[in-house]
Amino acid sequence: MGEPIKIAKPTLERLPSYYQALVRLKKEDRQYVSSRELEELTGWDSSQVRKDFNQFWSGGRPGRGYSIDELIRVLEDLLGMKRPTDAVVVGAGRLGTALCSYPGFAALGLRIVAAFDNEASRIGQQIGDVVVVDACKITSLVRRLGVQLGIITVPAPAAQGIADQLIAGGVRALWNFAPIKLVVPDDIIVRNEDLAVGLLTLSHHLTRSEQEISAQK
Amino acid sequence: MGEPIKIAKPTLERLPSYYQALVRLKKEDRQYVSSRELEELTGWDSSQVRKDFNQFWSGGRPGRGYSIDELIRVLEDLLGMKRPTDAVVVGAGRLGTALCSYPGFAALGLRIVAAFDNEASRIGQQIGDVVVVDACKITSLVRRLGVQLGIITVPAPAAQGIADQLIAGGVRALWNFAPIKLVVPDDIIVRNEDLAVGLLTLSHHLTRSEQEISAQK
DNA sequence: TAGATTGTTAATCGATTAACAATC
DNA sequence: TAGATTGTTAATCGATTAACAATC
Fold this sequence. Notes:
Two copies of one chain form a homodimer. By secondary structure, chain A is an alpha/beta fold. Chain A has eight helices and nine strands. Chain A has helices spanning 9-27, 35-42, 46-54, 68-78, 94-100, 138-145, 156-169, 195-216; strands at residues 32-33, 66-67, 85-90, 110-117, 126-127, 130-134, 149-152, 173-176, 189-192. Chain A has a seven-stranded mixed sheet, with helices on both faces. The relative contact order of chain A is 0.09. The mean pLDDT of chain A is 94. At the A-B interface, helix 1, helix 5 and helix 8 of A face helix 1, helix 5 and helix 8 of B. The structure holds a DNA duplex.
């Protein structure tokens, strides 16, 4: 039995940007990187970089920095990029289609094994390697394939029902693109990816700064 | 000249979910809602709901709660949903296409006036109401139309160059879907929407909980 | 060794939660 | 009025930033 590594949520959200910076450095054949340089590349304070790393790894060398190869390996392990995660996409609309064929996902360990939709015209179609299956088969197919992750890209009113079916089939995590709060058992992990949040945040700042400009006159 | 309303960043991120809950309540012809009920609908602590609202509005009535109509109006104003925001999408791939035709965006005040791509086969095509234009015209067309927001859905290596062209054309905000940190002047607002963050966060939790399960044996 | 940079502690800052008098 | 729920203050919690002895 290992250590009960607990990583703070804000730290976890920063790890992907560290990883991307490291991969870029490796391409330039660099061996070591300092927290100071990672600050420049990612925008996170160098103190914070060191503190983040020390939550799961204390392999930095005073005077030299962090071995890029080692750090990449540790992050890949920590973020589960080595063993593939099997997922299904529910909702084969524009967004669902985009996710099915998103080029970068495979490199991150994601394997989309099926898509679902309830519209007859879409069923049977192929999106890249992924076949669109009738949505009434969600629970049974998810169970049969042992799928761990369900990606929800249906309209808001349908999302809760889809979540229930995915959970009944045995998924342990949901990636929810519908703008609605899902009610799920405690042991199910949910990540909400509501694009409205990003858009309205920007829209707010735009309106604000416009008012500031006109107030200056 | 009005008050310099400052809204804490975490608060701003919660406002869209309040708004969505309010719209749902309004459809049920409800007049008032309490912070306690909003806690149930959104998952945010009722104390926090009140504190959030009081950053920009103190119109709640002790004993009754908040007027749904009034609160919706205040939020729409605050989030800039009344006056439309003009935007362009750069990168007419799967994700760019999905965003161009995302049904909910118009209701949030977003108006996509053009899409850009540098692939000849895509130029001239129509995505819903949006025409795909040659990417070499970004700066000039953005300037001519007075576009405020640039949405970047190109591959990471191209993203910085696109950002520069959009800024040269006069956009004041960028919505960046490329997994890379953009370098921009101080007065440009950037929102990063890196889907890898969401995916890797989920993947991490999945790997962790699997280890816990096997550790229990 | 001298210089650089780590790991970690302490100081600061900000956000969340609890509590309750004010008030509709 | 009595009951409910606000607005706001105080207490807690957690995250970020600064500083520096330890060490490669």
